[in-house]
From TrEMBL:
Domain PhoU: from-to ranges: 17-96, 117-189
InterPro entries: PhoU, PhoU-like_sf, PhoU_dom
Descriptive protein name: PhoU family transcriptional regulator
GO biological process: intracellular phosphate ion homeostasis; negative regulation of phosphate metabolic process
Domain of life: Archaea
Organism: Thermococcus thioreducens
Length: 199
């Protein structure tokens, strides 16, 4: 019984790693779209949707069959939440790429480029923190999230005296701010699994 539960949880772990890599891939594609390169985040987001459904199926079966407790239960609950976070990250990346395809700006959204640097770092940190259940890495996500929030607020302030690309920066940074929030939530799940504390 215990062995079957462990096998199921390991399967979920592997799928989450795959989802994490997919979310990063989508984010990198979205970043390239700022330079007019379009890799196709739609396919990646669709793939993550399928992987999330697989995780939901396995998690539901484990919950019903084995009635896991304590750390096992917290891991399975968190895996469901994290799969949602990673899927949403890919969807926001897709929206950024779609925006760039439609707008085809003549300017370069510099603030967004800066936002991407921090956001990619946040998502990488979140994926690694969850893979290794590393609370120290999870703690760094708060600082990264604050940086993205600051850039988003700056982009809104720039709308008072709009320059080229001000509106586009604000739109893209709104998506990046959401992505960063999801990364922060993944970090919070690590603390929940390890300590049973909800942040």
């Amino acid at each position: 019984m215990r062995k079957l539960l462990d096998m199921g949880m390991e399967q979920i772990r592997k799928l989450l790693v795959e989802m994490g890599n997919g979310a990063l891939e989508a984010l990198e594609s979205a970043r390239k779209s700022l330079d007019g390169e379009f890799d196709g985040t739609v396919e990646t987001a669709s793939k993550l949707h399928i992987l999330r459904n697989e995780i939901l199926d396995i998690a539901t079966e484990l919950l019903v069959r084995y009635s896991p407790m304590a750390g096992d239960l917290r891991f399975i609950q968190s895996a469901i939440d994290v799969s949602y976070d990673l899927y949403r990250i890919s969807r926001y990346a897709m929206e950024i790429e779609r925006t760039m395809r439609i707008v085809k700006p003549d300017c370069l959204p510099e603030l967004s480029k800066e936002g991407f640097e921090v956001t990619v770092k946040a998502v990488k940190t979140a994926v690694e923190a969850f893979s290794n259940l590393d609370e120290m890495s999870a703690g760094r996500l708060l600082e990264l999230d604050e940086k993205v929030d600051e850039l988003y607020l700056k982009s809104l302030e720039n709308l008072r005296e709009p320059r080229e690309c001000s509106a586009l920066d604000a739109l893209i940074l709104r998506h990046l701010e959401r992505i960063s929030d999801h990364a922060k939530e993944i970090g919070a799940r690590v603390v929940y699994i390890k300590e049973g504390k909800r942040l």
